[in-house]
Design a protein that fits this description.
Elements (H helix, E strand, L loop, with lengths): L5 E5 L2 E2 L5 E6 L6 E8 L3 H8 L5 E5 L2 E5 L1 E7 L2 E11 L2 H18 L8
Antiparallel strand pairs: 1-2, 1-5, 3-4, 4-8, 5-6, 7-8
Length: about 120
């Protein structure tokens, strides 16, 4: 069964805002980190109605990758954005994350730009 790749802050509710994603990886390739930055995410429009933000869930046909390192950014007391960090501690976790990102990128028209 094909599952549409999606990001969710509240399980069962897809996030409609496409994030900026920054990747870092150790020189030896054993670990890495992904930093997701969402400006005006759609979850702010509905979080009171459907539940609380409990993490960042990356969902695809292989299953769910979860990160609980999620922080809201506020300006003048109003939510402006969300920053989520996902740490990958093994090459296997890195490969799994990259497979998810490839599917998510294809679905949402994202492209990878390598730092100069």
């Amino acid at each position: 069964m094909m599952v549409k790749p999606a990001l969710q802050f509240i399980q069962g509710t897809d996030e409609l805002t496409i994030p900026d994603v920054k990747l870092t990886r150790s020189r030896d390739g054993t670990n890495g980190m992904a930093l997701f930055s969402f400006d005006q995410p759609s979850v702010f429009d509905s979080s009171g109605e459907v539940g609380e933000i409990t993490g960042l869930y990356m969902i695809d046909e292989e299953g769910v990758i979860q990160s609980t390192d999620v922080n809201a950014r506020f300006v003048n007391g109003k939510p402006e954005g969300i920053v989520a960090k996902h740490v990958m501690r093994t090459p296997k976790e890195w490969d799994r994350f990259m497979r998810f990102m490839e599917r998510y990128s294809d679905q949402n028209g994202l492209q990878f730009v390598k730092k100069q």
